[in-house]
Amino acid sequence: MSRKHPVTHDYRLVPAAAAVWTTAVAGLFVSWQAAAITGLAAGAVGLIAWRRAWWARTCAIALLVSGPLAAAWVGGHVLRAESHPLHLAANEGRTTTLTVELTTRPKGIRAAGFGGTQAGVENVVIRATANGAQLVLLAPADKWRDLLPGQKVTVKGSLAPPRGGDLASALLRVRGPPGDPQPPPVWQAWADELRDGLRQASTVLDDEEAGLLPALVVGDTEQMAPRIVEEFRTAGLSHLLAVSGANLAIVCGAVYLLTRRLGPRPAALAALAALVGFVILAGPEPSVLRAAVMGAVALVGLVLGRQRSAVPSLATAVVVLVLHDPALGGDPGFALSVVATAALVLVAPRWARALKRRGVPNGLAEAIVVPMAASLATAPLVAGLSGQVSLVSVVANLVAGPVVAPATVLGVLAAAVAPLSPWAAEVITRVAGPAVTWLIQVGRQAASVPGAAVGWPAGWAGAIALTAVTVVVVSLLRFKKTRTLVVAVLVGGFVVLVPMRVVAPVWPPDGWKVVSCDVGQGDALVLATDTADTAVLVDTGPDPGAVDRCLKTLGIKKIPLVVLTHLHADHIGGLDAVLTGRAVGAVAVGPLKEPAWAWREVGQRARARNVRVVEPKVGERFTLPGLELEVLGPRRPPVAQDENTTVNDYSLVLKAHTKAGRVLLTGDVELAGQAALLGERDLNAEVLKVPHHGSRYSLPAFLKAVRPRVALVSVGTGNRYGHPSPHVLDVLRTGGALVLRTDKDGDLAVLPGNRIVRRRRDGLGQVVQRALPDSRWHARTRMGAVADELLGDAVAARRAQTRFRLLHLRNARRRHTRRHVPGDDHARAAADEGRGPGGGVRPRRGARVRRRPADRAGHLARLPLQRAQGGSPVAATDRGVARERGTGRTTRRGRPAALPAHGLAQDGGDLPVSNAFSGRGRQDC
Q1: DSSP 3-state assignment of 172?
Q2: Which class for 114: exposed (0-12), middle (13-18), buried (19 or more C-beta within 10 A)?
Q3: Whole-angstrom distance, CA of residue 200 vs CA of residue 424
Q4: 798, 780, 775, 671: which is closest to 733 by C-alpha?
Q5: How far apart are the C-alpha atoms of 867 and 878, rounded to whole Å?
Q6: What digits encode the pLDDT tens for the residues 759-807?
Q7: I want to staple 177 with a disulfide (CB 3.0 to 4.6 A). Which of 16, 143, 846, 898 is the partner?
Q8: pTM over 0.85
């Protein structure tokens, strides 16, 4: 039965909780002195408020006590961590052997994979304690994955300073396996058995559903597909993948609803038992304990009907948890839990009552409002962490909300019965399967909406900014006078911004023939056919989500051929996403089946989708409507060597004949592979996919033989491999190519007529650009970036020299006047005729002109930049540049004639350059 009057909450302990939390943040991110000052300042405010009766007596006293207590407690912990011997040893990078006790389960770090390194979890992070200090262990996943909290092990590794905002004294990089591991506590082993039972029971579902269900129930994301993680983040559903107070509220609320007919007290005991069982299932890690406290607060507020005590309980929980472990003050998960629980306590009951008044059943109403309130409240923090704001979050959570509670409850039930009856657990898992599938489809469809997420400043500034915006909007909506204005502004902004993001930047552009997808540090290139939804894909990039998003925006539903130039992780990582939901004819691979793990993975994924795997030969052609593919390489017999260079040189090399011109697809061929292609057949192409992401292992002769007008470099932002090489880019530009990079330009589309459309990474606009259309200009050699910069310096120096001379002559009479001296007429006459040092500039009579010495600035810079017109050599002089014969001033007695400096300054465009280093021929910059 709904209440007639709204519940009045008690906020007296909120200032104390805020003071403790702020003190912890100051100590973790600044210093222990900052923690002491912050806590004492809070205590002083409480003292003044108590003496002047600003607030209630309880509120002032709580702040007066908690401030100094937090200053002493947090400051002491931070000082102890900074002065521990392990922290001092970490600053020196020492190697040590320790006996540590694990406090958390190993958490995998997923790597995207590059070259022969397989994508997946390679290392794990574990928190531990040793000699009274907290440590963070970075260890190999295959040797440390199965350890449990409470185990004691001996480790050997190198120490390093920890990251900021933590109480860990050092980071220990472990290389080997754990030494002498002790058995874990019995209840930890039992909890691990329950989790294994849930994972095993989930295998009856499809791969994506099998990875999502454990994550939804206990936050186990180890088996989740990266594509699902990315889609949930874009759709604003990422809070479902972590254990939070919402999980516990759903489980305990469901138990209470099922047992409430027995009376309030038995129902409360049953809910408490479910809470303890859930903590055991998820493991007693700090995040789980934090969620347990927050879930208990939500249980008190929502289930037991004592909403007035919910806010004091939440504030008390914050004070107790932060004082118990000050590191929680800087943990983003802790902030998410507090904000989500506050939303469950303050916002969710009002929404639930509103739904009940409209006829929604009690359980369904709570199942809807719990995830929605949590997602909306945590949006600023999520934006600060991820650097983006999901515009579809509200709708996605509204659609996904009704199935979150059934899936969570069924997952917990399956984990509970798995040790007793695996068959029953599988049946329960199958029942939960449709709900999990629904969540995946909601996240996928929401993430595929154009403009589903917009960029937002990351970090604390972004979170605070979005919080302020949200508070202002919500506050204005509460008043009738401003409500209409706010709604009008929001609707107007929606009407203006949505077309700018979705309609104005039309993507894909009409008539596109080649698109280089922005997939990070990897390759994925789409070749269009004359059929609207059909294209050939060359390589799939390292990330399933990136290539899937690119194909969706292009509207590709049928792929007759997927070409994997070679079996490196950054070229095959997205194959599973390409094969899912699309009609694929065949997968083409090269002759070298290395690395072995990649060949097995490609075969398994192709067989699972009933797709053929073919091996094209050199000279073979694939003809499609509007597209023809010709296999050019590799031109050597395969050698089974699992080395990156060998695998790269055996990449499939294709030439595509499209309506936008010839496209040379080079994979990752390096020096040997490129040398084998030289001289075999015509390599000339209008568009070049630059080999190996622009690596420095490229032959200038090979790039010169291709002579592309457009060079596409598929490369990841801030990669640690140094791609692309500035030297390679300089060679391409010297040859007249327009160089475009996916890390800076985003998705790149090539259209007929030498048109290129660049789609910015933030999706806010496009840039249309043309390559060089003149073949005669294209055939010439142009200056590269380094030479162009030197030329600019030389021209600037000569312009400055000429400008100063003219100014000096113009103002000479005013600054340096003297009386006329007899005998100056001869010098004046020589100057009038141009024979004097003034050259032909006649100073006013009676003025003495100080002649500056010839300025040699830029002389060295001009040496490699001398211009050739008609093939005549150019020499540098003190006054400019001189030409021996041909155009310009005539020479006398075999000496070069002087060309004024302003002549060089006026003619500063890009022109062909001669080889000034050797004195003859041409040279590629």
Answers
A1: strand
A2: buried
A3: 12
A4: 780
A5: 16
A6: 876 544 556 666 655 443 344 444 444 445 555 555 555 555 555 555 5
A7: 143
A8: no
